[in-house]
Amino acid sequence: MRLVRVTLRNFRGVEESTVRFGDGVTVVVGPNEVGKSSIAEAIRLLRTAKSSSRSQSVRDVKPTGRDVGPEAEVELRTGPYDLVYRKRWLKSPMTELEVRAPLREQSSGDEAHQRFSALLEETVDVDLWEALEVLQGASLDQPALARISSLHRALDDSAGATGDHDALMSAVMTEYEKFFTATGKPRGDYAQAAAEILDREAQLVALQSRSAEMDRYVEDHTANEQEHARLSTLSIDADARLHRAEEAVRAVDALRDGLRRAEEAVEVAERAHGHAVRARDERRVLVTEEADRSDAAQTLGARLGEVTFAHRESRGREEESRLQATAATTRAHEARRAADDAAAALARHRDRVERDALAQRVRRAQEATRDRAQARAEHDPLRVDDASLARLTDLATDLQVAEGAREAAAAALVVRPLGGQPVLVDGSAIGAEPYEGAVLDEVLVAVEGVVEVLVRPGTPPADLDRRVTQAREAFEAALREADVDSLAAARSAHERRRDVAARLAAADASLREALDGAALDDLETRLATLDSRNRHATDEDAAEASTSREDGHAPLDRDALEVAHDAARRAADDADREATSSRADHDHAREALAAAAEASVRARQERESAEHEHERAAARLAAARSGSSDGSLEHDVVAAAESRDAAAVTATSARAAFEGASPETLDMELTNARELVESVDRDLTRTDKRRVELQTLLDDRATEGIHDRRVDVEAALEVARATWQRLDRAAQAVALLKETLVRRRDDAQRHYVAPFKHRIDRLGKVVFGADFEVEVSTDLAIETRTLGGRTVPFTSLSGGAKEQLALLGRLACAQLVDVDEGAPVILDDTLGFSDPARLERLAVVLNDVGRTAQVVILTCQPRRFESVGGARTERLVAR
């Protein structure tokens, strides 16, 4: 088969494109996504997918975003046929086949699809076509050549094998497939016969199980009846045994009651004896307690006398220390009062001194504050300071200079009166002295009644007028800012400001000196406090002065007051220490008195308590003896002991009689008899219930006809086994024949592998070198490559070597098969793993194969195949 042309319309991203192929090597070149791989994809879809198909592979080729159906058309030659085949999918689907030779024919729809498939089946080995196509990204995979019949025929021819082996193998395989699946499992009638045997055997096993079950039910029914009879007999015996056990227990109960009454009598006697012993012991305790209480009362009476004497001695010592402490405290108060009076006098003297000094500071500060406020009031309105005056002086000078410059440039006017008539210049009469002045403005000279002369100035330079105007404006602005109307007034104001500033500085200095870092308000507050103290101290000072005069002493000064205060403070401290010592002595004496008083009270209370307890003990003893004497209590104890011993002997005899009757054994026998009766009754109930169940099951199984059904199944099983044995003999025979033929075919394959290996070695030596060799398996796959004496498995080779060997296998296959049965080799984006040197040698191989087979190369790297000598190049452009 040879491809002539492929046309794509609305196929993936291709709107319309046509590629023509030569009989040898055709290299289809184009950038990515221009539609190269779509050519191979379209050829596959034309062959495999009906136009009505909506499979995923068909939907994948529909253009994105366009409501059109993908369309493909191929023109080819296969066998004697020259034909054009086209399809459109999804949108307005259609199939058309036009056969141009050897006879013209046309068909469409499914008929065209079936006719095209039949032509390919007739003229092309489809398996070979698929094997010779290298899909994009699959160039490393070896083709599956073992199932290609055209290659087998070519290799058989090369190896000299007979041609009827395949027909025989096909017939054997057809017969084999009647009995076995591809994996060797039974199928068809053979499998059904085996399944029927299993089914019949399962039915027989089930029926046998049901029959055995029924036999067990019969056996269980018989055993249950026997068990029921045994239990009935046992029930009668158990009832008799229970009656005997109950009679024996009732006899033991009478002995138990006698033992209980004897033990109760013993307990009563024990309690009476214990009561008598306790009464005797309590009497002895009362006698002992009365004697002990009497001795204790006498001892505590003697101790009370000793404690009372000690208490009187402590009271005398406490009174003496109290009087001494009182006198010392009085002396300390008088000394402390004298010290306080001396301190107060010294403080009043200090306050007076401080008040006089503070009054002078406050007066000076107040005067300085008033002077400062007055100077500030005079100073603030005077704005002309040193800087202002200097600025005004500079501006006045600038104005004079500007006016002088303008006058120097102006005309001069001189008027001298000559007669007696008055001469007026600008309305002012001039005297005997002539008038001289620069003519800066219009000047009117008049002699009344005689003449008037108007003198106009010339035009001075503009910059001189501008300078005068600017100087005057600046000077006048400075005068307004200084709040004066002339430079002389400014100088006067400046002098006044300097005088006032000097007064203000003097007032500030006086105020700082008077305050000395303090605030005036704080000084005035302190002065008011001292004035208040002095007013209260005036009477005391007057009294002291009067006392001093009466005593003939002069008032004390500050030093004398301080000496008197120190002496008084020391005397007060000495008096305080003496008073403190006296109070401590008194405290000790008072604590001793309190302790003695407490001991006296406690001793008196203890004696009174002991006497009271003795009286109570004597009263309790007398009351007890009035009821019974000490001797009668001793007699009661002896009598109670004798009664107790007699009751114990009676209880011992009763216990011996009770224990001799074995009560525990009788209790166990009674319990066992009762439980035996209950157990036998339960077992009888169970056997009755089981009898009903088994009878129901036996009646149910009798209606099923299990025995008859088992006989029928056994007969059917024999028939099924006979059928299976017949089919098994046939299956084993055909399996043996298949095994023999496969072994024969494998032997033949080992012979025809040699031509395939030889062809690969021939092509490989061009690519890899003269020492290249491969080993090929019986399924025509390359297993190892030997190069330079080193053999490497195919799976361990590099990606480039795998790709090159897989390509050589396809090319060898293309050369070996009959030209009439051959198919094009389609290579989509291959040899991407090959270096330039290998590409050069592969180009030689491709050119050699292209002389007998059609090779189609789809690539975006044209330089890989530019060395293929006889190649035809078709370029695709994006549209």
What does this structure look like?
The chain is α+β, with helices and mostly antiparallel strands. It is 68% helix and 12% strand. The protein has helices spanning 36-48, 56-59, 109-123, 126-131, 149-159, 165-179, 188-379, 386-409, 462-482, 487-515, 520-550, 558-627, 630-660, 663-702, 706-768, 799-816, 836-849; strands at residues 2-11, 14-20, 25-29, 71-78, 81-88, 94-101, 105-108, 133-134, 411-415, 423-425, 428-429, 435-439, 443-447, 451-455, 773-776, 782-787, 790-793, 825-828, 855-859, 872-875. The strands form five sheets. The chain has a six-stranded antiparallel β-sheet with strand order 2-1-4-5-6-7. A five-stranded parallel β-sheet has the order 8-18-19-3-20, sandwiched between helices. The protein has a four-stranded antiparallel β-sheet with strand order 11-10-13-14, with no helix packed on it. Helix 7 crosses helix 10 (487-515), helix 7 crosses helix 12 (558-627) and helix 8 packs antiparallel against helix 10.
**Structural class estimated from helices and strands:** alpha+beta
> How confident overall, as mean pLDDT?
85
The count of strands amounts to: 20
The description of the largest β-sheet is: 6 strands, antiparallel
Strand order of the largest sheet: 2-1-4-5-6-7
Identify low-pLDDT runs: none
Proportion of strand residues: 5-15%
Helix content range: 55-70%
Global geometry: flat
Amino- and carboxy-terminal Cα gap: 30 Å
CA gyration radius, whole angstroms: 77 Å
Question: Number of helical segments?
Answer: 17
